[in-house]
Amino acid sequence: MISSWVAVWLAASPCAAEVEDTAKWLRAFAAQVDHVGPLLPNGLQLDERPGKPLSAFAVTATITLDETETTLSGVPAGDLQRALRESRAVKLPLDVGFAIDRAARWEQVVAAADAFTAVGLESGVLLFAERFTPAPPGPSAIDEDVKRAQSILELPERVGVIGALGGQVMKRCQAAVEAFYQKGSSQELRTPFTRLADALPKCECKLELPALRKILWESFAPNPPMLGVKLKLGAKGRVVKLAAGTSWSSAAETLVKAAAKGDALKLELTKP
């Protein structure tokens, strides 16, 4: 419900329409941002499949596979088995995500699964993309800064630079800063976005709203919202075989159907 002072401001302000439109965009963003998964390497294209929201799982580390590289939580892992043994995150009794590019090959998936079970892990989550409904932002004053940030190869550094840009955009309005960064009892990721939507009228016309949309998009939407499918793996599990060279976009349906039964699986290659 809009308070009386906000209604008066919306009727008189020259940026009222833009503020109201941005607030609606933020609420639409908030509705899906809880599904946003772990940060993935630039260019990774997840398949779209039905699944459960990621809030149903506890993903502490993510194995990513594309056509040329395997990474563990953003760090290249040429020897995945060794990387898994050395990772603190995968020692927790939680889930490890598998983010697999549509073009990755079945033999890569098999190799990753073998490394996974070799270190005694069993519980995984196949990660799939969910279509993001808020419209991408239009041009803004920070577009060149964002492009420079996107060119940074090291993921932690790129995240830090984009986060700093966000602080610069919001610092023009203290109400926006307090709303978005406020600490509270709610652990839901959507909460800062809904608070920010409510706070926008208090900023009057101080914020560059296209830049606000841009930085939030770059911070949270480069990774699509994700859905997960539980995957249990085991060295003595039920065998799922596919031919070498089968793309993940083709193999995913077979593995998802097999995983739905809930028993442990062992992935293999069919013999030539």
Detailed description of the structure:
The protein has 272 residues and is an alpha/beta fold. It has two domains: 125 residues, no CATH class; 84 residues, no CATH class. The protein has ten helices and eight strands. Strands 1, 2, 3, 4, 5, 6, 7 and 8 form an eight-stranded mixed sheet that branches. The protein is elongated. The termini are far apart.
Overall mean pLDDT = 85
Low-confidence stretches: none
Number of strands: 8
User: How many individual domains?
Assistant: 2
How much of the polypeptide forms β-strand, as a percent range? Answer: 15-25%
Based on the structure, what is the oligomeric state of the protein chains? single chain
What is the radius of gyration?
21 Å
Order of helices and strands: HHEEEEHEHEHHHHHEHE
Structural category is alpha/beta
Q: Write down the overall geometry.
A: elongated
* End-to-end separation: 66 Å
Biggest beta-sheet profile: 8 strands, mixed
